[in-house]
């Protein structure tokens, strides 16, 4: 009597690495599409795939041929449909690359330790402005980007390119200011532009009290590596948007930590 052959159960180091990499890829894709319309699109594609399998098993030649023609351009359709998610995925990879992840160590090696220490001092005018605008219930939307994309922002913004200051931020968002209606974009420790018109999120699961500021802040965090600070005009509540997700009722201590980490 022959014994069972368990050779197929042998797992090598390469297999373990392969499984871990696939798991990480699935996790990153999940974090990118969670709470977005991409989930509904994937469900729709899954339903089409199941329907295709059923009609093929039932030998429905006409329907099978139609669905096969539709699926033959699947790769191109996926790129078009998920272009925002693909952009965010590539940004996520770049943001977590080795040199980017360990930039603090490189800063120390090249004499930038003092600059890192002064990061909180650079954030202080922003926190102080948020405190005043929260108290006066002045609506505001501030977007923080690591790399300023002139083509993305400048076309719909007024160029400012000024040093960050509490008084300037408060002046921009005053109700009588011609620049208050829109977002301020902050990058490279400067207020680069103001009155920016940003793409709104398509997420239909957001709370009903979210207005255009919140939807614009979430929308820009979905399509770029930016983070957004939103101050509600109705309640003065501060929200923080990153990668398409939003934290509500953020305290000033939390805001300082988040900006120190992301900005």
UniProtKB/TrEMBL annotation:
Keywords: ATP-binding, Cell membrane, Membrane, Nucleotide-binding, Nucleotidyltransferase, Transferase, Transmembrane, Transmembrane helix. It catalyses: 2 ATP = 3',3'-c-di-AMP + 2 diphosphate. Residues 83-252 form the DAC domain. The chain crosses the membrane at residues 12-30, 36-55, 62-82. It holds the Pfam family DAC. It comes from the Bacteria. InterPro entries: C-di-AMP_synthase (IPR014046), CdaA (IPR034701), CdaA_N (IPR045585), DisA (IPR050338), DNA_integrity_DisA_N_sf (IPR036888), DNA_integrity_scan_DisA_N (IPR003390). The keyword Nucleotidyltransferase applies. Belongs to the adenylate cyclase family. DacA/CdaA subfamily. HAMAP family: DacA (MF_01499). NCBIfam families: diadenylate cyclase CdaA. Catalyzes the condensation of 2 ATP molecules into cyclic di-AMP (c-di-AMP), a second messenger used to regulate differing processes in different bacteria. This is Diadenylate cyclase. It comes from Pedobacter fastidiosus. The lineage of its organism: Bacteria, Pseudomonadati, Bacteroidota, Sphingobacteriia, Sphingobacteriales. The gene is dacA.
């Amino acid at each position: 009597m022959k014994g069972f052959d368990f050779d197929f159960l042998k797992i090598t180091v390469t297999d373990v690495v392969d499984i871990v990499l696939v798991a990480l890829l699935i996790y990153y894709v999940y974090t990118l599409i969670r709470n977005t319309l991409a989930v509904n699109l994937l469900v729709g594609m899954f339903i089409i795939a199941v329907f295709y399998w059923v009609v093929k098993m039932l030998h429905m030649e006409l329907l099978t041929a139609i669905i096969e023609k539709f699926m033959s351009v699947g790769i191109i359709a996926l790129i078009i449909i998920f272009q925002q998610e693909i952009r965010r995925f590539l940004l996520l990879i770049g943001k977590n690359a080795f040199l980017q992840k360990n930039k603090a160590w490189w800063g120390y090696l090249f004499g930038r330790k003092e600059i890192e220490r002064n990061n909180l001092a650079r954030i202080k005018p922003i926190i102080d402005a948020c405190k005043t605008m929260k108290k006066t219930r002045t609506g505001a939307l501030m977007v923080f980007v690591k790399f300023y994309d002139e083509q993305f922002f400048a076309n719909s913004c007024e160029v400012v390119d000024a040093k960050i200051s509490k008084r300037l931020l408060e002046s921009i968002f005053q109700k009588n200011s011609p620049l208050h209606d829109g977002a301020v974009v902050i990058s490279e420790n400067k207020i680069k532009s103001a009155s920016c018109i940003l793409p709104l999120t398509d997420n239909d699961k957001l709370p009903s009290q979210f207005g255009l500021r919140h939807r614009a802040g979430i929308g820009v965090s979905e399509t770029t590596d930016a983070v957004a600070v939103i101050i509600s005009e109705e309640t003065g509540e501060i929200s923080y948007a990153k990668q398409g997700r939003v934290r509500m009722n953020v305290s000033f201590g939390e805001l300082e930590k988040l900006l120190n980490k992301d900005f």
